[in-house]
Write a structure and sequence with these properties.
Structural class: alpha+beta
Helix content: 10-25%
Largest sheet: 9 strands, antiparallel
CATH class: Mainly Beta
Strand content: over 45%
Number of domains: 1
Distance between the termini: 59 Å
């Protein structure tokens, strides 16, 4: 009988993460803004503001984020964010992710960026999310159009 009393807590610890997956809702990702943080003769550094909506009734931690960015269906760069970010339950959190792209990978979008025209974008990747005793890898993909301002280097995004 004492063996059963010891096994019950261990069994609960093993089954609890599996049960949590029944109540997990996948967060949504949307691109809110794009800023050009630095331009040199060979490359350009972007800073993407990605809005992550946590629809769950519990907090999540974004443990890692891997992403690939495309402009006009052309890959311009990949990045990884390994800074843990807390996302409160039922709310939205903006995550700032950097991307360095050399001008050779940008091709025609360089003229569009410098000329202040709109760019079609696609950002896709995976997010590692942690909650209580479990973690999940969630794929995401978002497309839209970036409106670049003529006067500045900051623009908004349409989803």
């Amino acid at each position: 009988m004492k063996i059963n009393e010891r096994l019950l807590p261990i069994l609960l610890l093993i089954l609890l993460p599996a049960c949590l997956s029944w109540f997990f809702e996948k967060p949504t990702f949307s691109l809110k803004e794009v800023a050009v943080s630095r331009i040199s003769l060979t490359d350009v550094n972007f800073l993407f503001g990605i809005d992550v909506q946590n629809p769950n009734s519990y907090d999540l931690n974004l443990a890692a984020l891997e992403y690939t960015v495309y402009f006009n269906d052309r890959e311009v760069g990949k990045g990884r964010l390994e800074k843990e970010i807390r996302m409160a339950k039922g709310s939205s959190t903006t995550v700032q992710v950097p991307l360095r792209a050399d001008f050779r990978s940008l091709g025609d979008p360089v003229r569009m960026i410098l000329g202040g025209q709109n760019l079609h974008y696609r950002i896709e990747g995976t997010a590692v999310l942690k909650a209580l005793l479990s973690s999940r890898t969630v794929p995401f993909s978002k497309t839209g159009e970036i409106r670049l301002n003529q006067k500045g280097s900051k623009g908004g995004a349409e989803n």
